[in-house]
């Protein structure tokens, strides 16, 4: 697993951040922490660097086709593919009773219709169990 290339989406906090932390702790050499907000993603990487880890940050908004394409092209040029995709990006509304149509569409687009399926999934390298 140390030589695999994992990508964790929505990793600037919470579960995604914890997954990146654990991958780094286990000695994985290349770990991509992705987030749609560059400032928050960079701050998360700095926090992990303070613990002695070296995750890599790349901006990625799973609901934005251009962002997904840019990330896919970057990964393809650097690593030719990825070995592990942890599609953690997701959002929720705080108050279900007052959800607008627009809020509901944003949740659906982020959590279910993310464009990762088009650009990123085809970069996943398949391996056979030994």
From TrEMBL:
Alphabetized PANTHER family for the sequence: CARBONYL REDUCTASE (NADPH) (PTHR43963:SF4), CARBONYL REDUCTASE 1-RELATED (PTHR43963)
SUPFAM superfamilies membership: NAD(P)-binding Rossmann-fold domains (SSF51735)
InterPro entries: NAD(P)-bd_dom_sf, SDR_fam
Family classification: Belongs to the short-chain dehydrogenases/reductases (SDR) family.
GO molecular function: carbonyl reductase (NADPH) activity
Name of the molecule in the record: Carbonyl reductase
Record bears the keyword Oxidoreductase: yes
Keywords of the record: NADP, Oxidoreductase
């Amino acid at each position: 697993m140390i030589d695999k290339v994992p990508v964790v989406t929505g990793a600037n906090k919470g579960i995604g951040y914890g997954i990146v932390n654990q991958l780094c702790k286990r000695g994985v050499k290349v770990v991509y922490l992705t987030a749609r907000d560059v400032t928050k993603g960079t701050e998360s990487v700095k926090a992990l660097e303070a613990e002695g880890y070296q995750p890599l940050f790349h901006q990625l908004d799973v609901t934005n086709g251009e962002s997904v394409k840019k990330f896919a092209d970057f990964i393809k040029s650097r690593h030719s593919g990825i070995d592990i995709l942890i599609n953690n990006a997701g959002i929720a509304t705080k108050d279900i009773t007052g959800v607008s149509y627009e809020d509901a569409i944003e949740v659906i687009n982020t959590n279910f219709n993310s464009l990762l399926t088009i650009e990123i999934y085809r970069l996943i390298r398949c391996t056979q169990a030994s």
